[in-house]
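Entries read chain and fold; for instance:
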Amino acid sequence: MVLYRRNRIAGGTYFFTITLKNRTSTLLVDHVDSLIHAIRATKRARPFRIDALVILPEHLHAIWTLPPGDHDYSGRWQGIKARFSRSIAKSGIDLHRNAKGEYDLWQRRFWEHTIRDDTDMERHVNYIHFNPVKHAWVTRARDWPHSTFRRYVRVGAYPLDWAGENAEPEGGVYGE
């Protein structure tokens, strides 16, 4: 049996895709405040920097940088998922439980990619901010409210009309 291996670099920067089991759900945006609370609570307990983020209805993409000497991104994601699931259950939404009695809301695994260099970082940040347009939730990146796109506009990394009206950003995005 092949073991699933993850790259773990203390203080590294990583791109993630985290997905709900139900790919037709809108739970993440319907309860975005609970998700943001879960992320903030986890960050307080186990610090990390969010370099880029987009929250879509049934999945999210993020780029994090961990503190020097720390490589435990899996524990942080576990904390976020658990906090969000408990919050949703407390709100009255009936969540299915698996055979172990755990909430069965999230896919068990997640996609992780170690950011290699500035070009790799730029491509993944572009991918994150273009994702709501790619999935046709909006026609302009600036119109999606659950993203770090406007933070990048404020610091001059993007013009406000970047990737508007379904236009793929110059230079493309990875995997496209």
